[in-house]
Amino acid sequence: MTGETSMTAALLCLGALVRLLGERHYGMRRARLLLAGDGVVATGPPFWGEALTELRRLRGRLGAEWWALAAGLVLGMLGASVIPVAAGAAGVPVLRRVRLARQKRHVRERTADAVIALCGALAGEVRAGRQPGEALLRAAQDSGGLGEAQSAVVAAARFGGDVPGALAVAARQPGAEGLLGLAACWRVAVDQGAGLAAGLDRLDAALRAERDQRADLHAQLAGARATTVLLAVLPALGLLLGSAMGAKPLHVLLHTGPGLGCLTIGSAFEGAGLWWAVRIVRGAGAV
Predict the structure, then answer these.
(1) Are 14 and 74 contacting, i.e. CB atoms less than 8 angstroms apart?
(2) How far is CA 283 from CA 221, 230, 280, in A?
(3) Does residue 178 contact residue 171 with C-beta atoms inside 8 Å?
(4) Least crowded by CB within 10 Å, which of 57, 163, 249, 259?
(5) Per the UniProt record, which residue ranges are transmembrane (predicted)?
(6) Are residues 77 and 3 in contact, defined by beta-carbon separation less than 8 angstroms?
(7) How many CB atoms lie within 10 A of CB 74?
(8) pTM > 0.90
(9) Distances (CA, A) of 9 to 73, 113, 262
(10) Which candidate, 214, 213, 211, 228, places its Cα nearest to that of 281?
């Protein structure tokens, strides 16, 4: 009875989602035709291809972590149990945190690359004979390495404000720490009359060396990350192998006392192992 109830609920939810997406798309299409003034409005049901398109758009807006819930629904229907559905729902926030952390890392890397490009462009503009303020304006427009604080830095450079202070504020962005070196080079060049281009060259070389070191460390840790992913999917491969042999592992794990015990203990060890492996990899990457 529990298995039939869970399967019926999952099917009803999936059908309701498809229906809502189809009606939404159909209403938007009717509105576009009416506003366009064509005079003829389609009244038939939407095509399945359009509904699938809406599903893809919804998946892109919600994020890949919702695949955990989808997998839980599938396993729940196959195993006639609500346990996989609950596990999939619990995995959604965890996977969301992983996805957001990855996005932050990518943003940090892009910002660091933009700062390096800014230093190189600024050094080229200074060598071309332009004044530091004008050179910074041109370099900032070309590279975009100042991020959200670009307007403040540009205003300081254009109207003779505190450019090192504005650069120090901009350096608070993740990945923009190299702007502190640019602020120091600017302060030394303005206060002591030192060559700004020479200091920028040394700063650019140091930032590039640091980026190359991070890239090399990331490449060296790729094998450890792949091993972690492989260990994480081994239980799923075991379930598939057991199903192919006719052992019905889902029924044993979800509907028997010893199976539930093994599932609980195995899940705890799996989670602890993944947490420990991720901690080791992150610790090595932070060195």
Answers:
(1) no
(2) 11, 20, 5
(3) yes
(4) 57
(5) 66-95, 228-246, 258-278
(6) no
(7) 14
(8) no
(9) 10, 49, 27
(10) 228
Can you give the length of the chain in residues?
A: 287
Using alpha carbons only, give the angle 121, 122, 124 rounded to the nearest 5 degrees: 65
Q: In whole angstroms, what is the distance from residue 134 CA to residue 157 CA?
A: 7
- Alpha-carbon distance 14 to 226, whole Å? 33
> What is 116-132 written as a DSSP string?
HHHHHHHHHHHHTT--H
**What residues have CB less than 8 Å from 167, skipping those under 6 apart?**
153, 179, 180, 182, 183, 186
Residue 46 is which amino acid?
P
- Torsion angle, CA of 20/23/28/31, rounded to 10 degrees? -140
Report d(CA 26, CA 287) in Å as an integer.
54
Q: Choose the weakest-confidence range: 77-91, 185-199, 203-217, 233-247.
A: 185-199
Residue of 104, 110, 105, 116 whose CA lies nearest to 178: 116
| Cβ contact 92:113 at 8 Å | no
Residue 184, amino acid: A
Give the phi and the psi of residue 46 in degrees, each rounded to 5. Answer: -70, 155
Helix (H) or strand (E) segment spanning residue 218: helix 196-220
Amino acid, res. 213? Q
Task: Please say whether the beta carbons of 200 and 185 come within 8 A.
Answer: yes
Q: Which amino acid does the sequence have at 279?
A: R
250 neighbors 78 (Cβ within 8 angstroms):
yes
**Location of structure tokens 């640091």:** 210
